[in-house]
Amino acid sequence: MTVTDVPIATPSPVLAAARRRGRGLAPVLPALALIVVVFVIPVLALLLRSVLEPEPGLQNYAAFFASTTYLKVLGNTFLVAGTVTVATVLLGFPVAWFLAIAPSFWSRLLFAIVILSMWTNLLARTYAWMVLLQRTGIINRTLMEIGLISEPLPLINNLVGVTIGMTYIMLPFMILPLHATIRSIDPAIFQAASLCGASRFQAFTRVMLPLTASGIAAGALMVFVMSLGYFITPALLGGTSNMMLAELIAQLVQSLLDWGLAGAAALVLLVITLAIYMVQLRFFGFGQARG
Question: Cα 217–227–67 angle (5° rounding)?
Fold first, then answer.
């Protein structure tokens, strides 16, 4: 038998596919390792402390749900996150629509303003709102000068100030996905709707909203989840009676050194966030994948 007669073993298709997948995952392995080290392991350590400190058991969770104060903080968190999400949808949709249909110059200018607002330091933006919303701020002074109010409105150290500040900060995260979705819609669809006799309101409710539902869902999910865990803006613009869950966790760790109860509160927030994400994925993500 000659050398040319020796059969050459070829790898099976399954093995070849596994090797290709391995080569495809190689570039992201450093990023995955970083996420595991700086996020997954610390989160797991905190969650373990919720059932191990001060002694093994679920007493921290029992204490959390038995306290009306903690439940009020949880309610405030969802109230603010929901209000901010609704406000960003109502304000972000017209802006995203204008960005999609405006002339190139105005579209680029407004888009640059939106992006620059994201690049500005978060603490600086929050302090700017503290100046604007205080009793002697420009908003109250302007309203009093034009005669709309006779005394300053309480716009800070309450849920109103937190909602205003967080809506401003979260607005770009709603505008960007909505803008991308609206830009992908063929304008001929609206012309066809008009030729079929649809009014502007019907074209908006039956054509525009269904086509932009995925962008609205993506932006709303991002804003709501980020709002649930926000800390700096609520701490500076809110008051102690309107504390949010992230502030409570920070106080439990930094002031009371109660890592067990802080871990329980963090797990509650994490589970709720994952549940909301799964609901959004069920009604929008999977549906898009099937389409």
Answer: 120
Q: Which of 184, 180, 179, 182 is nearest to 204 (CA)?
A: 182
**pLDDT band of 90, cuts 50, 70, 90:** very high
Per-residue pLDDT of 146-195, as tens digits, reads 888 888 888 888 888 888 888 998 998 888 888 888 888 887 887 787 77
Secondary structure of residue 279 in the 3-state scheme? helix
Give the CA distances from residue 202 to residues 34, 190, 206, 209, in Å, rounded to whole numbers and listed in that order.
Answer: 49, 10, 6, 10
For residues 284 and 214, give the distance between their C-alpha atoms in angstroms, rounded to a whole number. Answer: 6
Please name which of 185, 166, 175 lies closest in space to residue 225, comparing C-alpha atoms. Answer: 166
The tokens for 35 are 């996420």
What residue type is assigned to position 228 of the chain? L
Q: Indicate the burial class of 158 (C-beta count within 10 angstroms; 0-12, 13-18, 19 or more).
A: middle
Its sign, for the CA torsion 32, 35, 41, 43, is negative
Contact 170, 129 (CB under 8 A): no
Q: What Rg, from alpha-carbon coordinates, does the chain have?
A: 26
Which run of H or of E encompasses 38? Answer: none
Mean pLDDT of 257-268: 85
Q: Give the angle 212-214-219 at the CA atoms, nearest 5°.
A: 95
Domains of the chain: 3-284 (1.10.3720.10)
| Virtual torsion, Cα 265, 270, 271, 274, nearest 10 deg | 160
